[in-house]
Design brief:
The chain has about 230 residues and is of the alpha+beta class. The chain has 5 helices and 10 strands. Strands 1, 3, 4, 6, 7 and 9 form a 6-stranded antiparallel beta sheet that branches. Strands 2-10-5-8 form a 4-stranded antiparallel beta sheet, with no helix packed on it. Strand 6 (about 100-105) and strand 7 (about 110-120) form a beta hairpin. Helix 3 runs antiparallel to helix 5 (about 215-225).
Length: about 230
């Protein structure tokens, strides 16, 4: 199928593209995020100094990070690439079973609607993981929360200096919306253009390890809210 034919097929659905900028968290992007430790301000200096830490305190306070609300659409999936640091991972008393990073999707009332936990069998100081959350039918606004429920200071399982990049599945070009531009990005891969590995991975929407017309069909379904 040529590029012109594909563009013709989707021209009628461009106006239905759903703008959904999923928030990121890093020393450069943290506006609107909430950190539940009242003693530590959420600012670039503290993030860079590893003072934003996820764990449960001795008094039972859960230190978490929660994003600002963002627009979404039922049936979409949110894919996340998370970089996080665990201090003292080589200490004799370190308990890897208590290093478990949890990402949760919250509705506009703060109720959890989907959650995923990464429980490693081994860690290093800097760790890279992929997580995904599903947006349930009928949901139009959400926020993300990150926590390390099992971690505490004594077992050195606290998660430090978390960095999170995320995108809606189907947002192939990472512009924050699902549109014909994402179909063009898939076509770049399909037609053999020179693209980076990240774009190639995002273009494989059906996760069959290849980019084909089937992925374009998936994208059209995302744009129409059918997938």
């Amino acid at each position: 199928m040529t590029k012109k034919i594909v563009l013709f097929l989707v021209a009628c659905v461009v106006a239905l593209a759903m703008h959904s900028q999923v928030p990121q968290f890093s020393p450069q992007e943290f506006d609107g995020w909430i950190y539940t430790n009242p003693a530590i301000a959420l600012n670039q200096t503290n993030i860079m100094a590893d003072r934003i830490v996820l764990y449960t305190t001795s008094t039972g306070l859960h230190l978490t990070l929660t994003s600002p609300q963002f627009n979404c659409y039922g049936g979409q999936s949110i894919d996340m690439r998370v970089t996080w640091i665990t201090d003292q991972w080589q200490d004799p008393g370190f308990d890897v079973k208590k290093v478990a990073l949890t990402a949760t999707l919250l509705d506009n009332s703060g109720v959890a609607v989907d959650s995923v936990t990464y429980e490693p069998t081994s860690v290093s100081r800097t760790n890279y993981i992929n997580l995904s959350l599903n947006v349930p039918a009928g949901m139009t606004q959400a926020s993300l929360r990150f926590a390390a429920w099992k971690a505490n200071v004594k077992n050195s399982g606290a998660v430090k200096q978390i960095k999170m990049t995320s995108y809606l599945r189907g947002d192939v070009n990472l512009d924050g919306e699902l549109s014909v531009a994402d179909i063009n990005a898939i076509l770049q891969v399909l037609l053999g253009d020179d693209v980076d590995d990240g774009l190639r991975q995002r273009a494989d929407l059906n996760a069959d390890q290849e980019v084909t017309v089937a992925d374009i069909n998936c994208e059209i379904g995302y744009i129409l809210g059918l997938s």
